[in-house]
């Protein structure tokens, strides 16, 4: 779902849910709450916001932020607008607000006009919620209906303002937990915040432009970056640990069996990191860099787009053991692979969709030898075309181990440089190059996976949608330790000194 549509949905739900939970109302918010008591309220606020944004377009962001900070503390009840008094400590001087929030005079201005039209009727909480919607529209954003009927609180909470609001330096896992505490999902989190907005606003453009050059130089680089991201996330979470070189004090993951002859792309990451460091030194983590680059790599070879949540920290550790045990291998059985995905919080549908990235992948002889000298003829039903394909594979990869072990061929021999659903058609024909892929369709344990493979072969849109969803899900496998003592590496290969 595109970002502006997510914002539409999030904001339309955001206001009603928070205020209804905390305002003390005994009835749901409605669109016509002021129909008889102040029928002009929406027009009055709209006209005044038009003047306010015309005076300074930045006022739109000021009002939206004020509404956000209000809703995260006690709900959308206008508690953020209360000044300190002898008997009440407000929220304005709480650390997330004091150097961030403005717009109080804007609210006063609109309130004065409304009070002249409908004295004592429209709450400040409703005023702020409607104004945030109008502010969004006035700078090119989407429209949504605003349910009204909130009441203004008689209290404020400095403590909640301090603890509940996300901060610019906060880690992703902490931010997500704060959104969850408010009943908001990861998708809502992505829609409502931009982690690098103030510290490195060009990060997405820099990575995209560099990835365009990298994939243009060699389309195979797209698959290399996607695989690197996958192998990172399956050991300790998406923390950049796969990028660490071995040192005297640290054993990395690069030489683990699933990585040593399979994973490349380290120089690609170095190249992008160098660009980002020249723009925003010490700000963007290698883990975020790799996650964004994997998305861009997918798009650049014809695959789907998805929004990438950011805010990961780089780990100071790696795990050779987890890289060895957690990552699926090309010869592994279906039930074992499903188990490994489940252990990462990923479903069977995620597994089948993420395996679809092999549509642009390459495989080395050592990883498909057992397949082409094993049951390939059985699964392909000795079709003449399949026999020709098998013969060509055996030319690339002789039966005996040796110099040819590193010889490569495309996993999808039909459209090897295009991200599409061709790999699933290959499996239907029984021509899957990797045993682990073909097992999804032909294994006796593959009742569910067989159905999904057929679905994605028939419906490329369904495949793209699930792949996008699964990549976000995989990208959210986090290393909780890295958010306690993680860092932003200056060089992705080494822990900072």
CATH top level assignment of the largest domain: Mainly Alpha
| SSE run | HHHHHHHHHHHHHHHHHEHHHEHHHHH
- What oligomerization state is this entry in? single chain
**How many beta strands in the DSSP annotation?**
2
The secondary structure category is mainly alpha
Helix share bin: 40-55%
Shape estimate: elongated
Which strand-content bin applies to the residues?
under 5%
Describe the biggest sheet? 2 strands, antiparallel
- Order of strands, widest sheet: 1-2
Mean pLDDT: 91
Fill in the CATH topology of the largest domain. Answer: Peroxidase, domain 1
Distance between the termini: 41 Å
* Structural domain count: 3
CATH architecture of the largest domain, by name, is Orthogonal Bundle
Radius of gyration: 27 Å
Number of helices: 25
3D structure, described in words:
This protein has 497 residues and is mostly helical. It folds into three domains: 3-168, Peroxidase, domain 1 (Orthogonal Bundle), CATH 1.10.520; 203-324 and 478-485, Peroxidase, domain 1 (Orthogonal Bundle), CATH 1.10.520; 329-475, Peroxidase, domain 2, CATH 1.10.420.10. The chain has helices at 3-22, 41-55, 58-71, 95-98, 104-117, 124-138, 158-164, 172-181, 186-192, 203-217, 220-233, 257-260, 266-279, 286-300, 320-326, 334-343, 348-355, 365-372, 376-379, 384-396, 422-428, 435-442, 447-458, 460-475, 480-485; strands at 362-364, 408-410. α2 (41-55) packs antiparallel against α5 and α10 packs across α14 (286-300). The longest helix is centred in the first third of the chain and has 20 residues, at 3-22. The radius of gyration is 27 Å and the shape is elongated.
């Amino acid at each position: 779902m595109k970002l502006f549509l997510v914002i539409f949905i999030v904001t339309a739900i955001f206001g009603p849910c928070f205020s209804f939970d905390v305002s003390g109302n005994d009835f749901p918010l409605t669109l016509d709450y002021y129909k008889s008591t102040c029928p002009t309220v929406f027009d009055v606020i709209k006209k005044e916001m038009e003047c306010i944004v015309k005076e300074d377009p930045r006022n739109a962001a000021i009002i939206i932020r004020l509404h956000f900070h209000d809703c995260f503390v006690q709900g959308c009840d206008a508690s953020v607008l209360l000044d300190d008094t002898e008997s009440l400590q407000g929220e304005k001087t709480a650390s997330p607000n004091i150097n961030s929030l403005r717009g109080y005079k804007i609210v006063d201005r609109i309130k004065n006009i409304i009070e002249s039209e409908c004295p004592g009727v429209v709450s400040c909480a409703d005023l702020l919620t409607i104004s945030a919607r109008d502010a969004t529209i006035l700078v090119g954003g989407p429209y949504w209906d605003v349910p009204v009927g909130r009441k203004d609180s008689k209290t404020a909470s400095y403590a909640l303002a301090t603890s509940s609001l996300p901060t610019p330096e906060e880690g992703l896992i902490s931010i997500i937990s704060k959104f969850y505490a408010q009943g908001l999902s990861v998708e809502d989190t992505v829609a409502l915040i931009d982690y690098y907005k103030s510290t490195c606003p060009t990060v997405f453009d820099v990575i995209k432009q560099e990835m365009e050059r990298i994939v243009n130089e060699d389309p195979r680089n797209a698959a290399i970056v996607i695989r690197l991201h996958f192998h990172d996330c399956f050991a300790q979470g998406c923390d950049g640990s796969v990028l660490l070189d071995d040192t005297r004090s640290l054993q990395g993951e690069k030489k683990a069996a699933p990585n040593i002859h399979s994973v490349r792309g380290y120089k690609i990451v170095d190249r992008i990191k160098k660009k980002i460091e020249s723009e925003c030194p010490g700000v963007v983590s290698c883990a975020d860099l790799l996650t964004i680059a994997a998305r861009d790599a997918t798009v650049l070879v014809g695959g789907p787009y998805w929004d990438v949540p950011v805010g990961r920290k780089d780990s100071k550790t790696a795990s050779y053991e987890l890289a060895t045990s957690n990552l699926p291998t090309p010869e592994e059985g279906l039930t074992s692979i499903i188990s490994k995905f489940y252990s990462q919080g990923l479903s069977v549908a995620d597994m089948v969709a993420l395996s679809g990235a092999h549509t642009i992948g390459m495989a080395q002889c050592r990883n498909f030898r057992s397949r082409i000298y094993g049951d390939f003829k059985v699964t392909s039903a000795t079709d003449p075309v399949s026999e020709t394909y098998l013969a060509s594979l055996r030319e690339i990869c002789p039966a005996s181990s040796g110099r040819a072990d590193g010889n490569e061929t495309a996993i999808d021999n039909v459209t090897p440089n295009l991200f599409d659903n061709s790999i699933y058609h290959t499996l239907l024909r029984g021509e899957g190059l990797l045993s682990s892929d073909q097992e999804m369709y032909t294994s006796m344990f593959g009742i569910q996976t067989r159905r999904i493979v057929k679905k994605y072969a028939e419906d490329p849109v369904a495949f793209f949608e699930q792949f996008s969803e699964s990549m976000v899900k995989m990208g959210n496998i986090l290393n909780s330790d890295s958010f306690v003592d993680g860092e932003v590496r200056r060089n992705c290969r080494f822990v900072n000194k």
